Amino acid sequence: MRALRVSSLSPDLSGVALAEVPDAAVAPGKVLIRVRAAALNYPDLLMTRGEYQLKPPLPFVPGMEVAGDVVAGDGFAPGTAVVAGTRLGGFADLVAVDAGAVREKPGHLSYAEAAGVGAAYLTAYVALVPLAAVQPGEWLLVHGATGGVGLAAVDLAGALGAKVIATSRSAAKLEAVARDYRLAASLPAPGFREQVKELTGGGADVAFDPVGGDVFDESTRCIAFGGRLLVVGFTSGRIATLSTNIPLIKGFSVIGVRAGEYGRQFPERGRENQDAIWRLAADRRIRPRVHAEVPLADWREAFAAMQASEMVGKLVLVP
């Protein structure tokens, strides 16, 4: 089978190549899936550089979430359309996945749409529901709102009844988001501080920040007293630092978000979170936006778009 294999770590993808490897095989407790779509996530890019928390031994095949058809395995009839969280191995023709991480694909979602639900929406859900406890009517400031995780937070916030202020460096991409999702406002980032304070009457109740750097710094200046600042990632490339007198004086909390680790630390809650996002998907209360479906053979194009933050929504690799 074909698989996108990382044989060495580098900043320029020079250690990544599409290769012929032995077929994935079914085993007890596993489900073998023929991949129809595999979503690209920012951690996949970071793993090719050795810059992500998960550092698998070389060589490895990235790809955290897939949708496809069951070939064989426990609990599913061959041919069943499914979605699965893989953590690794998704960028291939076939992948063997723990049976507990597989569920039937909602019929109204395409393979590409279904592949884009798991990681992004789980991150958004864990951040906004169990960690930040967002309430209807609260002001939610979403940074990086045109990327996969940020857009999932925008979409989910609508289901939660929050008032969303979306930010991005790209006005054109924000316009695309505003066409598809209900926003209270869309603002450039950085440069949003005063407008957020004016719109909200003092500050956002919650800030969702997968960007970091200057955006994080500015968020600390427009978060409400008693607010929650969610640290989701650092796509800007700079990990911000914070003097502790600022949250002390302003009375806000800084909360780290690692949705996968949250589920590993609290397995029962993790299952509840997974069930919750797929119920929302099945009820059509959330729906991922697919920016593009890219053939697996053209993986460099997708990774370059991810690195340049060119997409609005999810990039999906199609074997």
Automatic annotation (TrEMBL):
Q: What Pfam families does the database record attribute to this sequence? A: ADH_N (PF08240), ADH_zinc_N (PF00107)
What CDD domains has UniProt attached to this entry?
Answer: QOR1 (cd08241)
Under SMART domains, the record lists: PKS_ER
Q: Where is the Enoyl reductase (ER) domain?
A: 11-317
Among PANTHER family, the record links this protein to:
QUINONE OXIDOREDUCTASE-LIKE PROTEIN 2 (PTHR43677:SF4), SHORT-CHAIN DEHYDROGENASE/REDUCTASE (PTHR43677)
What protein name does the entry list?
NADPH:quinone oxidoreductase family protein
Native source species: Sphingomonas corticis
